[in-house]
Amino acid sequence: KNFIGNIEAARRAFLETVRRYGVERIEPVGEPFDPNCHEAIGHAPAAEMPAEHVAQVVQAGYCEGARLLRPAGVLVSGG
């Protein structure tokens, strides 16, 4: 239990450090799919989500201001 707590603390500290340098995590759930910012991993049936919108984030994406560092790996809703 202590081991997991230490890993989570190290992750939070890392994310806070990169945030201070202007790197932000992309949170696109519910947004329309944009191939410039998102990488489609597959489709997911999601009745509550319109078609061609991000249903789930599989791999987080990151940007620095307007510059994309890594696209978010997402599952796209089929509607």
Task: Characterise the protein shown here.
With 79 residues, the protein is α+β, with helices and mostly antiparallel strands. It has 1 helix and 6 strands, in the order αββββββ. It has one helix at 2-20; strands spanning 23-26, 38-44, 54-59, 61-64, 67-70, 72-77. A 3-stranded antiparallel β-sheet has the order 1-4-5. A 3-stranded mixed β-sheet has the order 2-6-3, with no helix packed on it. β4 (61-64) and β5 form a beta hairpin. The termini are far apart. The model has no long low-confidence stretch (mean pLDDT 93).
Shape summary: flat
- Average per-residue pLDDT, rounded, comes to 93
Q: What's the multimeric state?
A: single chain
What proportion of the residues is helical, as a percent range? Answer: 10-25%
Strand order of the largest sheet: 1-4-5
**How many helix segments?**
1
Largest pleated sheet: 3 strands, antiparallel
Rg from alpha-carbon coordinates: 15 Å
Low-confidence runs of at least 5 consecutive residues: none
Report the portion of residues in β strands. 35-45%
Question: What's the total number of strands?
Answer: 6
Order of helices and strands: HEEEEEE
**Backbone structural class:** alpha+beta
Distance between the termini: 40 Å
SSE order and pairing:
Elements: H1 2-20, E1 23-26, E2 38-44, E3 54-59, E4 61-64, E5 67-70, E6 72-77
Parallel strand pairs: 2-6
Antiparallel strand pairs: 1-4, 3-6, 4-5
